[in-house]
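Changelog note: in this version the structure field was regenerated for every chain. One regenerated record is shown below for reference.
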Amino acid sequence: MSPDETPPNEEPAADALRPTCELTVATAAELRAELMRVTARGSDVLIDLAAVPHVDAAALQLFAAAAAAVRRAGHRLLLVGGRPAVAETVRLAGFADLLSTGP
């Protein structure tokens, strides 16, 4: 097995984004560029929201588009570590399936 191959019974590692600012219309262009970069790699995508104080509809729309893109490629997008208010915003917007409750 070459070093680039995933051993049997193991999932490929996820590409991770760890934003540290509000994800709003003001930061949407930067978030979109980062999401395009990681989704193009063809692996699972993890977005760690632990340091994100607020998300708005622009960010939620980008999460949905990125999730659809990685799903078409046979992968998944997960949002992890969200503060209670951020997680609640994601849930209320109908994207609870993107939230990870595990490690």
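Spot check on this record: The two ends are 28 Å apart (CA to CA). Strands lie at 15-17, 45-48, 77-80.
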